[in-house]
Amino acid sequence: MSPLVKRSKKIIEKSTPHNTNLTFFVCLGLVMLINVFLNYKEPFDSWIEIVGTVFQIAIPMYAIVPVLWKKDKEGAVQMIKILFFVVGVTWAFKLGLSNLVGIDDVRPRGGRMSFPSGHTAGAFSGAVFLAIRYGIKYAVIAVPLAAFVGFSRIYSFAHWPHDVFAAVILCCVGGLLLVRPYKKK
């Protein structure tokens, strides 16, 4: 085994929710800094949308961290299940189910497929998974950041408030159906 692999294993074994949150913020800060240099001419309003888009991906990725350092195979399966459930139901609504139930809204800034908010659903799938599987101490950062994603979608006129709330409810229902609290073995 290489020294790098050994060192990585030691770091993972010593991880706690506190230093994992710190690592998350450092990585997120680096992503944001790179984004600053790539998009420095963008107005403030687009920054809110860009940050929301980054969090949409970052939160589910952050949710994978405790799964890995706890070596929680059952948690990995549950994470995959909630992601597939949320993505599947979201796209089922976007591709026509919303027409059947009479919620086929045009986006505030134009365009179709408004209901529900996919960005918000992606962010909250990770946050809800963390909260249910590992407890609120693991989700204390993810939940407010996921809420910011929802806010960013409304603020940037990409979605109506009910699109965002529907995505949050969808994730909560998916979490309650598919995710079970972690039990040490």
From TrEMBL:
Keywords: Membrane, Transmembrane, Transmembrane helix. The chain crosses the membrane at residues 21-40, 46-69, 76-93, 113-132, 139-158, 164-182. Residues 80-179 form the Phosphatidic acid phosphatase type 2/haloperoxidase domain. InterPro entries: PAP2/HPO, PAP2/HPO_sf. It comes from the Bacteria. Pfam families: PAP2. This is Phosphatidic acid phosphatase type 2/haloperoxidase domain-containing protein.
